[in-house]
């Protein structure tokens, strides 16, 4: 009689574990994410704007890595990384922005998706 109970337990565990495994990032997507984070960290003259306040890009990397660590189990690809970890403040909902030395400003989502496109087209870091 214990066999059917154990079998049911394994089936239940399968339903819980397999979706998590299926959602895991593959190494190519992780490399794209790492390249994006590295690129943001290499920006020296640009400013990261969060909730209306300017920060250096080192602070941006710190925040993005924190959010990435929290969201990683649910991410499927680099686009989701951008949308869930590097787009807007979870507190206020305001979009993150990047201010360039010439004064132009772009949302981080627009900027990072452009960089992701470059990575995917070129097969290497932007």
Shape: globular
The class by helix and strand makeup works out as: alpha+beta
Q: Radius of gyration over alpha carbons?
A: 19 Å
- The number of distinct helices, counting runs of at least 4 residues, comes to 5
Helix content: 55-70%
Tell me the distance between the termini: 60 Å
Order of helices and strands: HHEEHHEEH
| E-strand count | 4
Tally of distinct domains: 1
Mean pLDDT: 87
Major sheet: order of its strands? 2-1-3-4
Low-confidence sequence ranges: none
Main sheet attributes: strand count, strand direction, barrel closure: 4 strands, antiparallel
Strand content: 5-15%
Question: How does this model look, in words?
Answer:
With 126 residues, the protein is α+β, with helices and mostly antiparallel strands. It is 60% helix and 10% strand. A four-stranded antiparallel beta sheet has the order 2-1-3-4. The radius of gyration is 19 Å and the shape is globular. The mean pLDDT is 87.
Short description:
The chain is of the alpha+beta class. 60% of the residues lie in helices and 10% in strands.
How would you summarize the topology of this molecule?
Elements: H1 2-23, H2 27-42, E1 47-50, E2 53-55, H3 57-71, H4 78-85, E3 97-99, E4 105-107, H5 108-122
Antiparallel strand pairs: 1-2, 1-3, 3-4
Helix pairs in contact: 2-3, 4-5
Main attributes?
126 residues, alpha+beta, four-stranded antiparallel β-sheet, 4 strands, 60% helix, 10% strand, globular
């Amino acid at each position: 009689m214990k066999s059917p109970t154990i079998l049911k337990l394994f089936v239940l565990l399968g339903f819980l574990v397999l979706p998590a495994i299926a959602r895991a990032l593959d190494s190519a997507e992780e490399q794209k994410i790492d390249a994006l984070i590295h690129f943001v960290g290499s920006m020296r003259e640009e400013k990261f704007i969060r909730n209306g306040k300017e920060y250096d890009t080192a602070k941006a990397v710190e925040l993005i890595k924190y959010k990435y660590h929290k969201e990683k189990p649910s991410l499927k690809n680099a686009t989701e990384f951008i949308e869930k970890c590097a787009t807007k403040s979870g507190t206020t909902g305001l979009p993150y922005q990047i201010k360039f030395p010439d004064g132009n400003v772009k949302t981080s989502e627009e900027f990072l998706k452009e960089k992701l496109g470059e990575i995917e087209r070129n097969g290497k870091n932007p």
